[in-house]
Amino acid sequence: MSADAAQTDLGISGPDPRRELRTRAQAVIVPLVSVLIAFAIGGILIWLQGVNPLVAYKVLFTAALGNEQGLTRVMEKSTPLILTGLAVVVGLRAGLFNIGAQGQLLVAAIGAAWAGYAFQLPAIIHLPFALVFGMLCGAAWASIAGVLRAYRSVSEVITTIMLNAIAIALVDYLASEPLKEADQPLTRTPAIQSTAALPDLGIIPMGFVIALAVAILLGWFLSRTTGGFRFNTVGLNPNAARYAGISVRGTIVLAMAVSGALAGLGGAIETVGITGRFEPAFNAGLGFDGITIALLARANPIATIPAAILVGILRTGAASLQFETGIQPEVVDVILALTLLMVAAPIVGRLLFRNRALKATRVTSGWGS
Amino acid sequence: MHRKILVAGLGATALFLAACGGGSSTSTASSAAPAASSAAAAASPAAPAAPTDDSNCADPTVICVGLVTDTGKVDDKSFNQSAWEGAQAGAAAINGFSKYIETTDPKDYAANIQQFVDKGYDTVVTVGFLMGEATAAAAKANPNVNFIGVDQFNAVDAATQPNLTGLVFPEDQAGYAAGYLAGLTTKTGKIGAVLGTDTVPPVKRFGEGYQAGAKAANPNVEVTLVYHAPDNAFNDPEWGAAEAQKQLAQGADIIFGAGGNTGNGALIEIAKAKGAGDTVFCIGVDTDQYNTVPQAQKCLLTSAMKLLAEGTSDLVGMAANGSFPAGNYVGKAALADYHDTASKVPADVQQKVKDIIAGLTDGSVTTGVQ
Question: Looking at the structure, do residues B60 and B197 belong to the same domain, yes or no?
Fold first, then answer.
């Protein structure tokens, strides 16, 4: 890898401003064009089912964006997706592919539920306590994989996948035995105290505001601080990082812990902001969506915001799509899958920019290294 | 380096596709259902003003019936499908219109119910135990809409909530009848059951009824019940198949599969076993699974049925004519036809099972299950 390329990948302003511009343009244009193509293909699928795609898309977007309830739900659905997306982004920057956001989110969601119902505290302490406790649960869970990777060179891809399965069984056990709400048959914890509940700011869920703030904070951290520089350097070249005096092991463990804390914040906000208790079925799939979003955002923290909102809009509008037109709600998952396919396997980049297409180095440099 | 990147990207993509492939693959298969519903409505004999869409649902003379599925499809060959068939039949009988929404995220229960309420629907059917709270909340907020909670025990007092009914079933009776048949039919003296989670009471009642029925028929029969862990309890066919195989290896010759796709996995596995339909049999659940899981036809002795469609259809009719039974409404249990395995069940056994079902229905036989 040439020095020039390395600099560009690190996000340091390179010597060639045109190259810099092209990099930025591609980072925006490629996902946008991918989304448009995916919508076009999705439109064909809708048309094949006998519905005018323009009508269908109008229904979908009106349901999600055309009224206050829809907007609130879009924000509610986007919140955990932004955070799990950020969790995966942090990992990717440090050369780690965290597939375990789902497990981290689950242990945090039940941790926050416990912190939320088992204590009597004033709201000013209780709510932050529940959120932070959830984050710590997520961080601790991810750190298992971080330590194994740093000190025993066990691939975090494998361990995080396995920890997902363990987390699912663990939270099921906790919610059906020690933390189960008494005198009712469902597998779930008691409801959190009102002092731990996350308030709404009018139609804007507070969790969404927190997620936005965290995304911006993380963007600043990764591009403007020495800590972020360490993460990026370890991700790009662990040997160079070691020569430069960076503790590679420490950075790996820290990056996994931060990643787990972000996924955990997503789970904790779900508990204290949406569901009000822990119930296993209510948190399905959010962590895996984080992988999608991180790849769509090309490991850029700020870009996770529009990526997550797009997913939130599609998921919110899907039910109305079926209600109004009879189209199966899963069509939105087809659209998302197509988008990701074109972004991840650099089809659109190649098409638009030929041999000047950016290699998606930063997104996937951790894989198998 | 570059190749590695490409592989990683594709790997991640494959992962994503795998995660959501299950749902999308059915996207075209069931799209004809809404058309079928309007056809059913149009075909009803009372020709005047059979609505073909829901644009006039707010009109009090136009009866509209909406159904919200639990996280699953309306063609799931189980609860959602039976309830939808019942809703369609019920709506057709009163010359009304019917339509469904499939839930993809449990957090959308309330929003999906609200779609129907906003459009002026008269009756909303919600399917499955997990939707109980969302249904009760919607009933409270919308006193002018009747809510039918299929397979939801309604804890709210009928007097305070006259627009909400839980359609419940005597699962223990259905299980008891199936167990009684199995107890009389087994040659090895060992029978088994592969079940969804025992944290869902109806599933537990199926299992315990099955055990009680088998013991009543033959006190020496050995019954093995195995329940799935609560998470993903109804959508784990691989686990169901593995457990069925285990029980077969331990000598069970009749196995009851109850728990959505998990139970179906067990049935399909048994149909592949040596001696299926000859010395080894399976028993289905909820609906006549001879029709819903054709791969299991070879071993299927019968199915322990909840007459879900009938119960839903009855309630839709009662909601329309003003005799809505608030509180809980107990539907009927039954055993399905023997179909291909009829010759394997001696006439005297068939008669005994018939007598037991009659006894259960009139209350002279009790299952002893709480």
Answer: no
Q: Which chain A residues touch B9 with a CB distance below 8 Å? A: 295, 344-346, 360, 363-364
Q: Which two tokens stand for residue B134?
A: 């969302």
Give the span between the Cα atoms of A63 and A318, in whole angstroms.
9
Instruction: Give CA–CA dist A99/A88, Å, rounded.
Output: 8
Whole-angstrom Cα distance, residue B183 to residue B193? 13
Number of other CB atoms surrounding residue A253 within 10 Å: 20
The answer to whether B115 contacts A334, with C-beta atoms less than 8 Å apart, is: no
- CA of residue A121 relative to chain centroid, distance: 31
Examine the domain organization and report whether B110 and B129 are in the same domain. Answer: yes
Tell me which of B112, B171, B231, B239 to substitute to probe the interface with A (most A C-beta atoms closer than 10 Å): B231
Render pLDDT for A151-206 as a digit per residue (tens, 0 to 9): 999 999 999 999 999 999 999 889 988 998 887 767 889 999 999 999 988 899 99
Side-chain-side CA neighbours of A77 within 13 Å: the count stands at 31
pLDDT single digits (tens) B222-272: 999 999 987 778 888 999 999 999 999 999 999 999 988 899 999 999 999
Residue of B2, B24, B67, B198 to mutate, interface with A, max A Cβ within 10 Å: B24
Neighboring chain A residues of B229 at a CB cutoff of 8 Å? 169, 172
Cα separation of A211 and A87, whole Å?
12
DSSP label of B124: E
Pairing between β-strand B222-227 and β-strand B281-286 as defined by DSSP bridges: unpaired
Tell me, yes or no, whether B110 and B94 share the same domain: yes
Work out how many domains chain B is built from and give that number.
2
Residues B190 and B42 in one domain: no
Give the predicted TM-score (pTM) of the model: 0.77
CATH value at residue B91? 3.40.50.2300
Give yes or no for a contact between A139 and A265, defined as CB atoms under 8 angstroms apart.
Answer: no
Distance CA A341, CA A349 (A): 12
DSSP secondary structure, B80-112, as one string: HHHHHHHHHHHHHHTT-EEEEE--SSGGGHHHH
8 A C-beta contact, residue A9 and residue A236: yes
H/E stretch holding A91 reads helix A68-93
Residue B245 lies in a domain: yes
Same domain, B71 and B190: no
Whether B2 maps to a domain, the answer reads: no
Assess: ipTM above 0.90: no
Q: Residues of A with CB below 8 A from B35's CB? A: 326
The gap from C-alpha A264 to its chain's centroid, in whole angstroms, comes to 11
DSSP letter at A246? Answer: -
Assess if residue B246 is contained within a domain. yes
Do both B90 and B206 map to the same domain?
no
Residue A309 tokens, joined: 């909102």
Please, where are the H alpha helices in A225-285?
226-236, 238-243, 248-269
CATH T-level assignment (fold) for domain A3-364: ABC transporter involved in vitamin B12 uptake, BtuC (1.10.3470)
Q: Is the residue at B9 inside a domain?
A: no
Distance separating alpha carbons of residues B83 and B72, to the nearest angstrom: 12
Contacts of A102 (CB under 8 A, 6+ apart): A84, A164, A167, A263, A285, A286, A287, A288, A290
Joined together, the tokens standing for residue B83 give 């309830």
A288 shares contact with chain B (CB less than 8 Å): yes
Domain span at residue B133 reads 31-169+310-319+322-330
